[in-house]
Write a structure and sequence with these properties.
single chain, about 450 residues, alpha/beta, TIM Barrel, Methane Monooxygenase Hydroxylase, Chain G, domain 1, seven-stranded parallel beta sheet, two-stranded antiparallel ribbon, 14 helices, elongated
Length: about 450
């Protein structure tokens, strides 16, 4: 099909992927991998990005980082999908910073992006938010849009709404790709929009796109139908038509020597009815801090499996009840005001234990205040660690593999705020990183999505 990149939503990081990645490399096909999975992803209605989720994200990266053709990750897919769920974007940005900090610590060129859902009420704020702020580690390397505006032979990009789609990116300083496209309302699909995406009037803005999707599922977006047990191709559906579009000779007049990285990152959107995220730095998970806090508690929850539906429901119930009768600022978040409790990025069990412990002490250490059979509550006599010790820990004292780099980035940010010459130096460094990604901009034109 003349493709050079695929987007993959789900993989099992515990498996060996050498054979698949070897075939992709032989074909010259790059991999962009989604990090969330159904169990570990940011819940748009009750958002958090905690230590457990962050470590699951890194598991996928570590499983693929050795492969030459592993080129990028997507930290969130349509997490905020309307104006009611904008607070969730703050935690996606925390994930961006966490992942980029780790990737920097292992000295890799893997890029980090986000995919939005093209919602008309929040899209412009989203576009700005993921590319704003002085901390380059909290800004995405590329921005993705899942869009199905162009259905059938709409004639041109203006009729299909692509002009409006791309307008906010005219002065954008990072690459933009369509992370999903290929409306199937009109069948068979003729993929006229693919010409615009890969070889037409949008090439000055877009860096390509992923057609949705490779294998036929119940939603009828498949390019091919797979054979029994997923082996082989039993039927080509829309794949041949897409291949013909991708084979169209390039009309591009863009030259690499015309690249001039003078654009600047975006201004953060202000809090409004349509955007409930304050423009401040969002903290990232810190395993050392959270574990220290847990070990300092006199009342803890210790379920055998904290990931069962029953355990999750009980933890949620504890948090809701306890935060209704006690002060929860240390584990709570308020994205609109920019408040993030010092332990708000800890695991649900750790946060529930923290507030139960506070209530236990508040009521004179009555045993009944530390009692929960479902989650195996336990009273600890004379914990070896004092909570004050945890509060003095720095992020570089163990815990996350990326903590040293995170501390370095924060220190750099503080210095940059007081030194304009250093800010110029930092901006230059970021331009170089954007430039490296834009080298790919001119090679990632024919892209398709594959799920395996």
């Amino acid at each position: 099909m003349n493709v050079n990149s695929i987007r993959v939503y789900q993989v099992d990081p515990s498996k060996n992927h050498d054979a698949c990645m070897k075939e992709l490399e032989k074909a010259g096909i790059y991999l962009v991998l989604d990090l969330p999975n159904p169990e570990y992803s940011i819940d748009r209605t009750n958002p958090h990005f905690d230590i457990e989720m962050s470590e699951k994200y890194l598991e996928k990266i570590k499983a693929f980082i050795k492969y030459k053709y592993f080129i990028g990750v997507i930290v969130g897919n349509e997490v905020t999908n309307d104006k009611e769920t904008t607070p969730a974007s703050a935690f996606v940005k925390s994930a961006v910073k966490y992942v980029k900090s780790y990737l920097k610590s292992v000295n890799t060129g893997v890029f980090v992006g986000y995919a939005d859902n093209d919602d008309p009420f929040v899209r412009e704020n989203m576009i700005k938010y993921f590319n704003c702020g002085n901390d380059a580690m909290a800004r995405v390397d590329f921005y993705g849009i899942n869009t199905y505006r162009w259905c059938g032979n709409n004639g041109n990009s203006q009729i299909a709404g692509y002009d409006d789609l791309l307008k906010p990116f005219k002065e954008y300083d990072i690459p933009v790709i369509l992370t999903e496209y290929g409306c199937n309302i009109v069948r068979p699909r003729d993929f006229k929009e693919a010409i615009v995406v890969t070889n037409g009037e949008a090439e000055n803005v877009l860096s390509g796109g992923f057609v949705y999707e490779y294998s036929q599922e119940d939603n009828n977006y498949g390019l091919v139908k797979l054979g029994p047990n997923g082996f082989g191709v039993s039927e080509v559906i829309d794949g041949d038509r897409l291949a013909r579009v991708y084979a169209t000779p390039s009309k591009s007049n863009i030259k690499m020597n015309s690249y001039d990285p003078e654009l600047k990152h975006s201004e953060c959107p202000e809090v409004s009815d349509n955007w409930r995220v304050a423009p401040i730095d969002v903290p990232i998970p810190n395993r050392a801090l959270c574990d220290c806090m847990f070990e300092s508690l006199e009342c803890t929850l210790n379920p055998k499996n904290s990931h069962t539906d029953e355990a999750k429901k009980e933890v949620s119930s504890i948090l809701q009840y306890q935060c209704g009768i006690n002060e929860c600022k240390d584990i709570a978040t308020d994205t609109e005001k920019g408040n993030y409790g010092v332990f708000s990025m800890c695991s649900p069990i750790q946060r529930a234990s923290y507030i139960m412990n506070s209530n236990y002490i508040k009521h004179g250490r009555q045993a009944s205040m530390c009692s929960n059979d479902k989650l195996n509550s336990k009273i600890i006599q004379n914990p070896k660690i004092k909570i004050e010790t945890c509060m003095t820990k720095t992020e570089s004292e163990g815990g996350n593999e990326s903590n040293e780099n995170i501390k370095e980035n924060r220190d750099n940010k503080e210095n940059n705020d007081n030194n304009s010459s250093k800010e110029k130096k930092r901006s230059g460094s970021q331009k170089k990183r954007v430039g490296n990604l834009l080298v790919l901009k001119f090679s990632l034109f024919t892209i398709i999505l594959l799920v395996f």
